[in-house]
Design a protein that fits this description.
The chain has 157 residues and is mainly β. It is 15% helix and 55% strand. The chain has 1 helix and 10 strands. It is globular.
């Protein structure tokens, strides 16, 4: 009888760990509107407005971004990621962006290199609030200029 319990406990433990990992990935799907009053752009580019439409079905993540920077016209572009760590390539305003995305517990981490006139690296960490209504993007930028940004998004109903 003791042998049966051990063999049964191992698959149950594996199942429990898999369920725990699945629970740590928050549901970030939806439409997210930036709140510029709550955001801090540091010495980096300032967004007047930004709307993200996120669709995530593991491992595929698509973020359609409509953004108006302080200097320049409004642009819409898609950022396609694979959260299994595979590198993806996107185009933003004519510049190539290479990224890898992964989950660090409940935090989505996106590591990107923007290939423009001067190379810029960005490390993004997305965190969803416990009530699921606020998405916080902490961005660390190095290269042409170094800065930290905190961008706050509110979920749209």
């Amino acid at each position: 009888m003791a042998g049966r319990i051990r063999f049964t406990a191992i698959p149950l433990a594996i199942l429990a760990l898999a369920m725990l990992e699945a629970q740590t990935k928050p549901n970030i799907n939806g439409v997210w509107k930036m709140d510029p009053a709550k955001s801090d752009f540091g010495s980096g580019p300032v967004s007047e407005s930004r709307l993200d439409k996120i669709s995530y079905h593991e491992p595929d993540l698509k973020d359609t971004i409509t953004q108006k920077l302080q200097r320049g016209a409004e642009n819409t572009y898609d950022m396609i990621y694979s959260t299994d760590g595979k590198e993806t390539t996107n185009k933003v305003r004519g510049n190539t962006v290479n990224s890898t995305a992964r989950w660090d517990g409940s935090v989505l981490v996106v590591d990107s290199t923007v290939h423009a006139l001067r190379e810029q690296k960005m490390l993004d960490r997305y965190t969803l609030s416990s009530d699921g209504k606020t998405l916080t993007l902490l961005r660390h930028m190095t290269g042409h200029f170094d800065t930290d940004q905190k961008i706050i998004f509110e979920k749209q109903e």
